[in-house]
Amino acid sequence: MAPPADLTLVTGATGFVGSAVARALLARGERVRVLARPNGNRQNLAGLPVEITEGAMEDPRSLARAVAGCRYVYHVAADYRIWVPDPAPMFRANVDGTRDLLTAALDAGVERIVYTSSVATLGLISGGSADEATPSSISEMIGPYKQSKFAAEELVRDLFHQRGLPVVIVNPSTPVGPHDVKPTPTGRLIVEAACGRMPAFVDTGLNIVHVDDVAEGHLAAADKGQIGERYILGGENMALAEILAEVASTVGRRPPRLRMPHRMLFPVAFGAEVAARVTGREPFVTLDGVRMSRKKMYFSSEKASRELAYAPRPARQAIADAVAWFAANGYLK
Asked: 3-class SS at 42?
């Protein structure tokens, strides 16, 4: 029997944002298929009534099977790491895998695609908030993750212009909240701060948003977004000192008071990366991370608010929900 016409594929549903998108779709009664690696961590799929198709972004045949019979596709999957010993697999997943998936979706006649990019692909404004029109270039992208996402978003736009790909692009800022099982780099920062292992901070800033609001923004992009357009799905701009203070307040600790100059972190990051190449464990501080922290990653979601009725909750609630989930799941020991 052919699958129903309203079947929706979510890639990356075993991950942080992808699982939030899958849960949001299920909450409104949609039938969801997810792409999952055969031996991957499926903790975020536990108890969810989804159809699981095994495959990977590096396997084009599995991608063709995954999109078959689907009306909608949410391509959320990405290799998201600030540091990698070899960037080639990251580019294979984030760029080549995106091309293979979206080409298969075109061939399968998918009606609407939401592609999850990142604010990492956008330019920045000193002393202000960047938006979808802020110019950027590959030369401004620090590290393989940003470079791969920039290249992938360029590829998506090329498919839109050249082949009429029915795609809406969303650019989440820095999501936090429940089900960050890995956790993400920002989730790791929250865990370390909640455990009192962040004695100092640098002068930087992020745009913090609840992961469930990012998920709702994905659905709104599918329902209301204009084909070929992109939308920032962000929340509140916060200095790192404010983020750490909010985490400390949530767990009843004193926030860190020592502000460290960026230049002092470079030797620490260098040593951490050398150790990581020996141990194979991802370093908590990286050279690219220090370079990125020299600029405040502040963004405006005004376009999404205007065109998608996007309305994120306060960042304080996002941080509190993240801390509560990490505590309940044993991350704060």
From this structure: coil
CB 13 within 8 A of CB 35: yes
Strand order from edge to edge, sheet including 236-239: 174-176, 205-210, 236-239
Q: Would residue 287 count as lying in a domain?
A: no
159 vs 41: CA distance, rounded Å: 31
Partner residues linked to 11 by β-bridges: 35, 75
Which sign, positive or negative, has the C-alpha torsion 269, 272, 278, 280? Answer: negative
Distances in Å between the alpha carbon of 11 and those of 18, 53, 113, 266? 7, 10, 11, 36
Rg (CA), the chain: 19
pLDDT 10s digit of each residue in the chain, 333 long?
344 448 999 999 999 999 999 999 999 999 999 999 998 899 999 999 999 999 999 999 999 999 999 999 999 999 988 778 889 999 999 999 999 999 999 999 999 999 999 999 999 998 889 999 999 989 888 889 999 999 999 999 999 999 999 999 999 999 999 999 999 989 999 999 999 998 888 888 999 999 999 999 999 999 999 999 999 999 999 999 999 999 999 999 999 888 877 676 666 666 666 676 777 777 777 666 666 666 789 999 999 999 999 999 999 999 999 999 999 999 998
Residue 255 forms part of a structural domain: no
Domain harbouring 59, CATH code: 3.40.50.720
Task: Tell me if 240 sits within 8 A of 179, measured CB to CB.
Answer: no
The number of domains in the chain is 1
Q: How far apart are CA 192 and CA 176, in angstroms?
A: 14
Residue 217 falls inside a structural domain: yes
By residue range, what is the domain housing residue 118? 8-176+209-235
